[in-house]
Amino acid sequence: MSNVRQHQNTVSHHSLEIDVPVVVFDGVCNLCNTAVQFILDNETDQALHFAAAQSPAGQRLLRRSGFDTEDLRTFVFMLNGQCFTKAHAATRVAEHLRYPWRAARILRFLPHPLLDWCYDRVANNRYQWFGKRDVCMTPRPGLQARFIVD
Predict the structure, then answer these.
(1) Do residues 11 and 18 touch, judged by C-beta distance below 8 A?
(2) Which of 15, 40, 51, 72 could join 148 in a cystine, given CB atoms 3.0 to 4.6 angstroms apart?
(3) Backbone phi, then psi, for 13, in 5-degree steps?
(4) Kind and range of the H or E element at 149?
């Protein structure tokens, strides 16, 4: 069994007993991949882990959490047994970013229907506006341990 250890937390790839924060993202979406790179470049604690929704691990995480693995139009942020989606997930991830990006967490005080409406407009058009890859992104050297793939 392969394990990833980060800040005394363990991600078991095979059983997916998750006790670290995990971002499940659309691995073929250019916007989503750019967002993951942005998070990696701007996070403060390097505690976040990532799983492409199309990977075996991403599929199991989504299924186990009750999400439709065929029609996922949001990224999912899993933290302490809770799942956050859409704009709410983004504001939770912002808590892990350096300033000034961390200030985006204040958006969570805006009405959720408004934030989700804005999020849905981008999510529903992400492939047309930003493009799509044929295969999921490959993490750059030194970051492979932060990506859960199997």
Answers:
(1) yes
(2) 51
(3) -60, -35
(4) none
Domain 3-146 has CATH 3.40.50: no
- Domain limits of the chain? 3-146
The predicted-structure confidence for 46-64, as pLDDT tens digits, reads as follows: 899 999 999 999 999 999 8
Task: Determine the Cα–Cα distance for residues 82 and 76; give it in Å rounded to an integer.
Answer: 10
For the chain, the average pLDDT equals 84
